Amino acid sequence: MTTSHALIFDVDGTLAETERDGHLPAFNAAFAELGLPWHWDEHLYGELLEVTGGKERIRHFAQLYDPARAAATDFGDLVQRLHQTKTAHYVRRVAAGAIPLRPGVAELIKAARSSGLRLAIATTTSPENVAALLHASLAPDAAEWFEVIGAGDVVPAKKPAPDIYDWVLERLALPAASCLAIEDSVNGLQAARAAGLRCLVCRGEYTREQDFSGAWRVVNSLTGIAPASLFPPAP
Ligand code: XBP
Ligand code: MG
Predict the structure, then answer these.
(1) Is 206 exposed, middle or buried (0-12, 13-18, 19+ CB in 10 A)?
(2) Whole-angstrom Cα distance, residue 41 to residue 6?
(3) Which ligand is nearest to the CA of 190?
(4) Are residues 199 and 83 in the same domain?
(5) How many domains, in total, are found in the chain?
(6) Would residue 12 show up in a list of annotated catalytic residues for this protein?
(7) Cβ(126) to ligand 1 under 6 A?
């Protein structure tokens, strides 16, 4: 294997189970802090995850459950303030070490580095969330292990659109055929496939029942996966 191959990791649900124990309580803390009568439970959050991106998810929820507020002229400002507040809560939780990496993730990333694979991230979540998770849960300098980190609003259309993967591939200056995406959700799988990438799916707590047709491989854990097995020689 040479440096002409790269692993591109999703973050939420793939590196760590961030949704239920990280994002969900942070959204609820932001709603309370800004005095909104909203509270998301685990089940509702599972449904809202269909929409990627925190701001997009808040808008979607308000349109369904609080349409009068969603129609107000200052709704866009409210969404921005809610999302900034939510991000601050999320980063505090993660920086305190509240969210461990999923089993096998740290081992795979370290083995991939040692074997000369290039590493990148393609995620819908905000860059400060990625930095906090890598720093607290992988290593203080872990953000530097990833040559390209594509996150949040650097592209206008979030997963399942391919844009974030296209953005990362362009910066890696590699063809899609030389890379493998690692994802946990059908939205992530569709984004990777639409960018022409092979995709390894590691099912997560919110995505276990999703349809992963089109995935290169589907697993329940990244434990024991050798980097060399991810780039088999062409037949
Ligand atoms: C993850 C997301 C993210 C987080 C929230 O999707 O949709 O939006 O839930 O993060 P994926 P922000 O794993 O497919 O990238 O609030 O920072 O947007
Ligand atoms: Mg994900």
Answers:
(1) buried
(2) 37
(3) 1
(4) no
(5) 2
(6) yes
(7) yes
Quote the crossing angle between the two packed helices 163-172 and 186-194, to the nearest 10°: 50
For the segment 66-79, the average pLDDT, to the nearest whole number, is 98
Ligand nearest to the CA of 121: 1
pLDDT for 161: 98
**For atom 7 of ligand 1, which residue has the closest CA?**
52
Q: Which residue has the tokens 């060399």?
A: 228
How far apart, in whole angstroms, are the C-alpha atoms of residue 188 and residue 199? 9
124 ligand 1 Cβ < 6 A: yes
pLDDT in tens, 16-54: 999 999 999 999 999 999 999 999 999 999 999 999 999
Query: Is 30 in contact with 89 (CB distance < 8 Å)?
Result: yes
74 Cα: distance to centroid of ligand 2 (angstroms): 30
6, β-bridge pairs:
118, 179
Residue 202, strand partner residues: 219
Q: What is the number of residues in the chain?
A: 235
Q: Are residue 12 and residue 33 in the same domain, yes or no? A: no
Is residue 66 flagged as an active site residue?
Answer: no
| Euclidean distance between CA atoms 24 and 18, whole angstroms | 9
Reduced to 3 states, what is the DSSP secondary structure of residue 193? helix
CA distance 61 to 176: 35
pLDDT surpassing 60 at residue 1:
no
Of ligand 1's atoms, which has the minimum distance to the CA of residue 159?
14
Q: Does 178 reside within a domain?
A: yes
Interatomic CA distance for residues 151 and 146, integer angstroms: 12
Q: Which domain holds residue 128?
A: 6-17+100-230
